[in-house]
Q: What sequence folds into this?
C-alpha cells in the first residue's frame, strides 16, 4: 500500500462512513485499500462494476452482496480479498507476528502437533488464520476461537510475499477451491 495518497470516496456510502470512522490511521488505510482491491477483484473476476452492486452490512459487521460471495482481510500494511460463487472466508497474518499470544488457543491435539512442527510460529499462525477464515465463512456474530475450528470447511493456505514481507493467507470454503493470486498497484 502506498504511503502518500489521497483518500477518495468509495461506494457504497456506508462503507465510506465505516472507513472514515476508523480510529487508527493504519486501520483506516487498510480498510480503504481492501475495498479498492475488492472493487478490482469484482471487475477482474466477474466483470462487475462495484456501483452496480447492492451491498448490505450485517449486524455482525460483515459486508455481503447478492452477486457473489466475498471476504476481506488486512494485516500489517497488506490487504487481501477472496471472491467466489460459493461462501468463502479469508484471513492473513504477517509471518513476523509474535504468535505466542494466540498459542494458548490451540486445542490439545494442535499443541501436540506443535511439538513436532518445523516452524512453530508458522504452525500457530496457520491455525489462527484457519480459525479466523472459518469464522468469516460462518457469518457468526461472535468469534469463539476455541470452537470456531469445529466448523466443517476446507482450508487452502499459502505463504506469500508482499512488498518484501511474508504473510500466511488462508481461505476457508465449503469445498476445495483454487486460489488465484493477483496483485494490484494503487
A:
Amino acid at each position: 500500500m502506498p504511503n502518500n495518497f489521497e483518500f477518495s470516496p468509495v461506494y457504497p456510502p456506508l462503507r465510506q462512513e465505516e472507513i472514515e470512522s476508523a480510529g487508527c490511521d493504519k486501520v483506516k488505510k487498510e480498510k480503504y485499500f481492501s475495498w479498492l482491491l475488492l472493487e478490482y477483484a469484482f471487475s477482474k473476476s466477474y466483470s462487475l462494476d462495484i456501483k452496480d452492486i447492492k451491498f448490505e452490512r450485517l449486524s455482525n459487521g460483515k459486508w455481503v452482496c447478492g452477486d457473489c460471495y466475498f471476504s476481506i482481510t488486512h494485516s500489517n500494511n497488506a490487504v487481501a480479498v477472496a471472491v467466489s460463487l460459493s461462501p468463502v472466508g479469508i484471513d492473513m497474518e504477517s509471518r513476523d507476528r509474535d504468535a505466542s499470544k494466540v498459542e494458548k488457543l490451540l486445542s490439545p491435539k494442535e499443541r501436540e502437533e506443535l511439538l513436532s512442527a518445523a516452524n512453530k510460529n508458522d504452525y500457530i499462525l496457520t491455525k489462527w488464520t484457519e480459525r479466523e477464515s472459518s469464522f468469516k465463512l460462518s457469518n457468526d456474530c461472535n468469534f469463539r476461537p476455541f470452537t470456531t475450528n469445529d466448523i466443517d470447511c476446507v482450508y487452502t493456505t499459502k505463504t506469500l510475499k508482499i512488498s518484501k514481507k511474508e504473510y500466511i493467507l488462508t481461505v476457508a470454503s465449503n469445498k476445495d477451491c483454487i486460489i488465484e493470486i493477483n496483485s494490484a498497484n494503487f
User: Anything to note?
Assistant: The chain has a mean pLDDT of 89.
